[in-house]
Specification:
alpha/beta; 11 helices; about 575 residues
């Protein structure tokens, strides 16, 4: 039986071969059914589980030869893993000074370090599955080209007109405040509401030429509180809409001109604003902004709306435990066609994001606001349907340094460098009439040292001059007037000066030594100039006027430079320098 089977197979095969030969040149007979198809790839299996990232490659710290800034850079993990962020630790002189995050795809970051310090940075890649081992960079010596700082001003160049971008204030005004003290500051904008100072703040601020931002949430709190905080707007949307319409009409009927209507101050900032049991969520807050926007525009189509006035810059959901961030807010505005006229946040060293480097975990450098504003501009550029809203930092200064003149100069210089559209000094326990955001003692007339920073700032007109510094803790703002007068406002803002502020609000700080700053100013023409130098020392006591240090004629070098030494610059001090052409 087996042999017969083999013969039969051979016969069939031969017949097929003969048939194929006999039909050469003719179409071959087709099978009755479709030809079998080759097997496809097997169905995909479950995705591979996320694994913790591998170690980063080649962390390298590079010093800037002319400043105390340094750049840490690294390579992606070689194993192809996907970090979500990197944790960076900053080490100086054998101890860790702080840590911060850098979100992927970040592979470098520039930070301020202590001049002359021995520094290194550790880098660790992290995702939700875990973190890599830590890799430490090389060690560098941070540049220190001058004793404390060398600051250079080029008054022959311009970075744009001087329009007092940071000459704004918050509440803290009324009939008790000496009008002359207000006028000397030439306020450009004022953030007000009807709840402070017997409702007289708006008309008082407007009478001194300031453009107003009216904070609606202040009035809502005043009208709905039962002693324990404001009612939730989402508890009764009809009531909330009616409140907005009635408030706007009342303010307009009083003859008060409002530039911006501010919907909600510090949403979810955990400052006791709401009544007990009220918990704002992201969705509720976004709906509130939409309803307020529509009610404001319905009441006055020409009205301008500013939002969200976050307690800190944040552009990532859940960052700093805030219920709202700028990225989510702007995406919602795009989806719902809300063209806000201005976008706002606060720079008050409170609930800052994890990507902010704060040495010794206590305070944020003034120039950090530049990075925040640049990031916000990038977010807006990615969402062109929103147009070109103004950027407002409608509260700045922090409780630990708000009374230090040098810190005020640092914040003014940074906000001007960032080209913010408007910025308002905040009030820490000094929001009542007579205090002028902590610049006066409360009697409406007696001046603290910080007052003279803003009085000097008010005199700075013409064009802004570019400024460079060897130490980012000593910065300046400078202008050149039409008549050639150069004015420089310089400040040191390194620590919070526990000798003045008190150790209870200056954690991890010690009193820093005074130092010498060398100021070099390039003036428009080589001639003789009259140089006037006055100090605004940091102090807890009132200061009736800046302390005059010198007035003398100075010969301008052939290259147009005037060198002005400033000895004994203390932490928190500010200095005024005026160069008048003769």
């Amino acid at each position: 039986m087996r042999r017969q089977g083999l013969v039969a197979i051979a016969v069939v095969a031969a017949a097929g071969l003969l048939a194929g030969t006999a039909c050469l040149g003719q179409p071959a007979p087709q099978p009755a059914g479709p030809a079998p198809q080759p097997a496809g790839p097997p169905p995909p299996g479950p995705p591979a589980p996320l694994r913790a990232p591998g170690v980063v490659g080649s962390p390298t710290l590079t010093a800037d030869p002319s400043t105390n800034r340094a750049t840490i850079s690294w390579q992606l993990p070689s194993d192809g893993s996907a970090p979500e962020h990197y944790t960076l630790g900053v080490h100086e002189n054998g101890r860790q000074r702080g840590a911060f995050l850098c979100y992927a795809p970040c592979t470098e970051r520039t930070i301020n370090l202590t001049p002359g310090a021995s520094a290194s940075v550790s880098v660790r890649a992290v995702n939700s599955a875990g973190g890599s081992a830590v890799r430490l960079s090389n060690t560098i010596r941070v540049s220190q080209p001058c004793a404390l700082a060398c600051v250079s001003v080029d008054a022959t160049q311009s970075t744009g007109p001087a329009i007092g971008r940071a000459r704004g204030f918050l509440h803290s005004v009324g009939p008790k405040t000496d009008p002359a003290r207000i006028d000397a500051l030439d306020p450009q904008h004022w953030r007000v509401s009807g709840t402070w100072n017997d409702g007289l703040g708006p008309e008082t601020a407007a009478a001194h030429g300031a453009k107003l931002t009216y904070v609606l949430s202040g009035d809502w709190h005043d009208q709905t509180t039962t002693g324990g905080g404001a009612a939730a707007p989402w508890a009764d949307w009809d009531r909330y809409r009616a409140f907005i319409v009635e408030t706007m009409r009342a303010v307009q009927a009083a003859g008060v001109d409002v530039e911006y209507w501010d919907v909600q101050n510090e949403p979810g900032g955990k400052d006791g604003y709401y009544a007990a049991g009220v918990k704002p969520t992201t969705d509720l807050l976004l709906t509130q902004y939409a309803i307020a926007y529509e009610a404001i525009k319905a009441t006055d189509p020409n009205a301008k709306v500013v939002a969200p006035s976050l307690v800190a810059y944040s552009d990532r959901p859940g960052e700093s435990n805030l219920p709202l961030d700028l990225r989510t807010f702007l995406d919602y505005a795009v989806t719902h066609g809300l063209a806000f006229d201005a976008v706002s946040f606060h720079d008050i060293n409170y609930m800052q994001g994890g990507d902010v480097y704060t040495p010794d975990w206590w305070g944020t450098a003034p120039d950090e606001v530049i990075r925040s504003i640049d990031s916000l501009r990038a977010l807006l550029a990615e969402r062109p349907s929103l147009g070109s809203p103004a950027i407002l930092v409608n509260e700045y200064s922090d409780p630990a340094t708000t009374g230090l003149p040098g810190w005020s100069v640092g914040r003014i210089a940074a906000l001007e460098a960032a080209n913010v559209d408007q910025a308002n000094r905040t009030c820490w326990g000094t929001c009542l009439d007579g205090w002028l955001d902590g610049l006066l003692t409360g009697d409406g007339e007696t001046t603290y040292p910080n007052y003279w920073v803003y009085a000097s700032y008010a005199e700075m007109n013409g064009n802004r001059a570019p400024v460079t510094t060897s130490n980012t803790s000593v910065t300046a703002f400078a202008t050149t007037a039409a008549d050639g007068t150069v004015r420089v406002l310089l400040g040191r803002h390194q620590g919070c000066n526990p000798g003045i502020q008190g150790a209870e609000i200056c954690p991890n700080q010690h009193v820093l030594d005074d130092g010498e700053v060398t100021l070099r100013v390039r003036v428009p023409s080589p001639t003789v100039a009259l140089v006037t130098v006055a100090a605004i020392p940091a102090a807890a006591a009132p200061l009736p006027a800046p302390v005059l240090k010198l007035t003398l004629p100075a010969a301008v070098a052939l290259d147009g430079l005037i060198t002005v030494p400033l000895p004994g610059v203390g932490d928190g001090d500010a200095w005024q320098i005026t160069i008048d052409p003769v």
